[in-house]
Every structure is written in structure tokens, then in C-alpha cells.
Amino acid sequence: MDLDVFVMTHRAEWDRLDHLLRRGRHLTGAETDELVALYQRTATHLSLIQSSAPDPMVTARLTQLVARARSTVTGTRRASWKDAARFLTAGFPAAIYRSRHWWIPTAVLSTVLAAIIGWWIGTHPEVQSAIAAPDELRQLTRPGGEYETYYSSHPAASFAAQVWTNNAQAAAMCLVLGAFLCVPVLWILFLNMANLGVGIGLMSSAGRLDTFLGLVLPHGLLELTAVFVAAGTGLRLGWTLIDPGPQSRRAALAQQGRAALGMAMGLALVLFVSGLIEGFVTPSGLPTWARITIGIVAELAFLAYVYVLGGRAARAGDVGDVDAFERSAELPTAA
User: Fold this and answer.
1) What is each CA distance from 202 to 126, 137, 185, 224, in whole angstroms?
2) If residue 232 lies in a helix (H) or strand (E), which one and from where to where?
3) How many helices (H) and strands (E) does the chain have?
4) Are 11 and 65 within 8 A, CB to CB?
5) Could you read off the pLDDT tens digit of each residue along the chain, which spans 335 residues?
6) Rounded CA gap, 226 and 335, in Å?
């Protein structure tokens, strides 16, 4: 395609579209119809130039024109409480449900890794001595030691807020960094499981594993599930770069990226609940069985939420993406 000839042929149409867009709401019915037709033709021109003779200046101008025209033709839409309710009852749980083949294996393998690290540390005194001096280890694991006082070292409200912030950041990093071919996500998972494994190993070597689990399980079940969901989604996002499936790589990555963004907002709410449990239930004077029961109930409620609401929405075709009319237009691809 001769770009100069193409531009000269269609420049008058582009200028006319720009003129109509500048007039805004002061258009007659015929001019509105003309704007829609020019918008469609200009979008086609942009596609042709991008695929045949990409020129930065022409592409930039037409991209801006098409975006402005699309906004004018389709109008703008404000988010409402109905959108938030739909996200929480369909979009978010559907996205988690559809990615279960990623986060469930992630959860199983990560838990096994933490258990292996805990067993290795708990059964090898030389490894324990490499972690810290004997006096420091006793300070960590003794009754009333640092492992126990950690959960009551700050006022419950501020501690819950701090925990929520830290966990939300970790989940967001897993979601975002998945685009870097999964490697950062695996590293974040390893660090989390290594920390958990160290606690298991040191407390089991001191004969206080039951105390440690009584402190970790009330909030840890829901908290770790949220981290596993984030990590699994991040890994799925990274794998999309390698194998986008029937879609183009750009379209597949955009869809998974939008779903991951929604996932980040939803998981922030899940981690908020986990933070409340960690701040108010874990350090409370409730019996161990009662605290663990609260953690199990919270975990089962989350899984029911995912598999009941999410499964229903997924079977209805919801993929956790934004509605079709809110997405950018995509060029058709060959089968």
C-alpha cells in the first residue's frame, strides 16, 4: 500500500470526522449519522495502516480520532452499586473458579514444600544452628516467646491493618509479576513457604508445633488460599505469553490482565477478612479449638462462594472480564 496516496485520498474524511467531533452535541440527525459512518471507516483505515504500512504519526492521529469517536458514539458509563454487586457475586468468583486448575496445584505443591522445609529444619539441628544461635532460637520458641507475642505485639486494629496491607501487596505482586514469564511469582511463593517452613521446623523441634498451628491456622487458611489464588492467576498470566491459545497473544494477555486486575481488588477484600481474624481472633483468649474453628468456617465459606457462585457464573459464560462493550475493539484473527 502506498501510504502517501492513501493519506491524500482519505485525509478529507479524517478532517471531517475531527470537525464533527469538535462540534460535540450540536449535531443534526444527518450529521450524527455521518459521524458514525466516518468513525467506522476511519477505524478500518487505522487497521489497514497498522497491518500494511505502519507510520507512527498517521497511526497516532487515527488512534486518537477513533478513540474520541468511539467515546462519542458509545457514550460514557459510570460505575454503580449494581456493577459492584455483579462483580462480587459473579465476575470475581467466576474468575477464581475458572483459574482453579492453576491455584489448586499451586496450593498443594506449596504446602508440600513448606512441610518438607519444616521437616528438614525440625530434624536437623545443624540447620537450626545455621538459622540462629541457640539462645535466639529459645527466645523464638519458648512459651511467651516471639512466635506467640508477635500476634499481640500491637493493638488489634493497627495490627490487622498492617497485616492486610502486607498481604495485599504480596498478592498484587503475584498478579502483576506473572507477566514476567512466571519466575517472580515462583520466587515470592518460595519465600512465603520457606518462612512458614522455618516456623514449623523450629516450633516442632521445641515440641510446640501444636501451639504454632493453633496460632497460624485461624487466619492462615484463608490468607494462604488468597495468596495461592493470586500466585496461580499470576502463573496463568505468564503462561498466556507462552501459549495464548486460539486468540492472538495481545488479545489473550489483555483478557487475562483485566481479569487479574479484578482479582486483585477482590482478593484485597478476602485478605481484609483474613487480617481481621489475625488481628482479633488469633491473639484472643479463645480456646485453640474455637480459634481454629473460626478459621475453618471462614475457609469453607470462601470455597463455597467460589464453587457455588463462581461455578454458576462460569457455566453461564462469565470469565471475570469486563463487559464486551467496555473492551477495546479487536481485529479479527485467522482461525
Assistant:
1) 12, 8, 26, 20
2) helix 209-242
3) 15, 0
4) no
5) 678 888 888 899 999 888 888 887 778 888 888 888 898 899 888 888 877 767 788 888 888 888 888 877 766 555 567 878 888 898 899 989 999 999 999 999 999 999 999 999 999 999 999 998 989 999 888 988 888 887 776 666 766 677 677 777 778 788 777 767 678 888 989 998 999 999 999 999 999 999 999 989 999 999 999 999 999 888 888 888 777 777 777 777 777 777 777 888 889 899 999 989 988 998 888 999 999 999 999 999 999 999 999 999 989 888 765 454 444 444 444 43
6) 37
